[in-house]
């Protein structure tokens, strides 16, 4: 072997070892970043009722995006010594791979690598990250359950990515105060050749010379009516020019009877089982939970329910932790508020909850 070949092989070995080390480090950082990004995003949102939100939003410019129902994905790309490394993580920190849309993401970054190498000044390290939603395109609204079902089936190649935020690290392309729509435009240009990657549907609502904030609110309300009420999307995400973010969804209220409860391992109230009374006098079980109740509320309700446990029942049901519910007399009615109702499960089969008969002494 010539000295030149030996030197080239040694350089290649050093480069590959450096790349492997860099990949391991960036992978760990990305998975931590995915969890952090989702947590911060949830913290920054203010949830508003779609029926009454106009007075709550403020600003001279609104960036309105359509809320898609899917799985949050943190996708990052590193260009290290002219080599592209891409990683994809969910909000739980799990790696996502082997999807056609992810392959397209990498291919677009390879093209960006080639374009960057044509510049007179090329950064040694380049890192860009995108916050995205993995969703299943379709004529009708699809939900996160549909995405989970597709991931486990041949439909996984139909899944697509919708980009709703860009984050730059190490080498910044533009300033931190860059407008939101400009960040989306950068993503749209970068992935313009992709078939299964796009920016989330969006529009900018900006005040004209004689427009007031109420005029802007009305225009956002019109977008809500079109995208959510008419087209059936999950909701809107509205940002103003100062960084405030609102998530706007339709809210439903339902009067339901408490027919059972489950306690946690420490004896505290964990869940309440709710049912609605139909026209035939039967109780349709439809939801379980205790979100929104304070610790004091739970203590009082637990004391109330324990005095109304039915001694004999012909029905049993356990919660997600495997804890069986204790059935009670259907005397207490709650007003339940929720932002979404689903009629189908992830396998596209209809949700079928129990239909119960209460005869005065037993279920």
Set down the secondary structure blueprint.
Layout: H1 3-44, E1 45-49, E2 61-67, E3 71-80, E4 83-90, H2 100-117, E5 125-135, H3 144-151, E6 160-169, H4 180-190, E7 197-199, E8 202-206, H5 213-230, E9 235-240, E10 245-249, E11 252-263, E12 269-277, E13 283-289, H6 295-306, E14 326-327, E15 333-338, E16 355-356
Parallel strand pairs: 1-10, 6-7
Antiparallel strand pairs: 2-8, 2-9, 3-4, 3-5, 5-6, 9-10, 11-12, 11-14, 11-15, 12-13, 13-16
What do these coordinates show?
With 363 residues, this protein is an alpha+beta fold. Helices cover 30% and strands 30% of the residues. The chain contains 6 helices and 16 strands. The strands form 3 sheets. Strands 11, 12, 13, 14, 15 and 16 form a 6-stranded antiparallel beta sheet that branches. The chain has a 5-stranded mixed beta sheet with strand order 1-10-9-2-8. A 5-stranded mixed beta sheet has the order 4-3-5-6-7, with helices on both faces. A hairpin with a 5-residue loop joins β11 and β12. About 8% of the residues have low confidence.
């Amino acid at each position: 072997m010539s000295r030149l070949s030996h030197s080239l092989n040694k350089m290649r070995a050093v480069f590959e070892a450096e790349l492997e080390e860099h990949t391991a480090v960036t992978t760990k950082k990305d998975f931590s970043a995915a969890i952090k990004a989702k947590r911060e995003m949830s913290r920054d949102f203010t949830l508003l009722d779609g029926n009454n939100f106009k007075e709550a939003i403020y600003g001279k410019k609104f960036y309105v995006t359509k809320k898609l129902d899917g799985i949050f994905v943190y996708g990052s790309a590193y260009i290290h010594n002219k080599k592209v490394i891409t990683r994809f993580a969910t909000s739980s920190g799990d790696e996502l791979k082997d999807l056609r849309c992810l392959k397209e993401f990498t291919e677009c970054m390879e093209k960006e690598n080639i374009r960057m190498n044509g510049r007179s000044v090329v950064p040694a390290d380049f890192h860009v990250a995108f916050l995205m939603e993995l969703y299943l395109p379709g004529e009708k609204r699809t939900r996160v359950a549909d995405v989970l079902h597709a991931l486990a089936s041949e439909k996984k190649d139909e899944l697509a990515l919708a980009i709703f935020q860009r984050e730059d690290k190490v080498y910044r392309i533009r300033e931190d105060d860059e407008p939101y729509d400009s960040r989306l435009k950068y993503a749209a240009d970068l992935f313009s050749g992709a078939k299964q990657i796009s920016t989330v549907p969006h529009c900018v609502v900006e005040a004209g010379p004689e427009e007031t904030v109420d005029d802007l609110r009305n225009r956002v309300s019109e977008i809500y009516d079109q995208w959510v009420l008419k087209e059936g999307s999950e909701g809107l995400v509205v940002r103003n020019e100062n960084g405030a973010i609102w998530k706007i969804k339709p809210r439903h209220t339902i009067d339901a009877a408490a027919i059972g409860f489950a306690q946690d391992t420490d004896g505290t109230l964990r869940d309440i089982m709710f049912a609605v009374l139909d026209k035939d006098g039967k109780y349709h079980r439809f939801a379980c939970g205790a979100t929104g109740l304070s610790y004091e509320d739970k203590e009082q309700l637990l004391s109330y329910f324990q005095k109304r446990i039915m001694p004999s029942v012909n029905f049993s049901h356990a919660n997600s932790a495997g804890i069986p519910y204790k059935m009670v007399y259907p005397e207490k009615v709650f007003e339940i508020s929720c932002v979404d109702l689903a009629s189908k499960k992830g396998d596209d089969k209809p949700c079928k909850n129990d239909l119960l008969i209460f005869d005065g002494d037993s279920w």
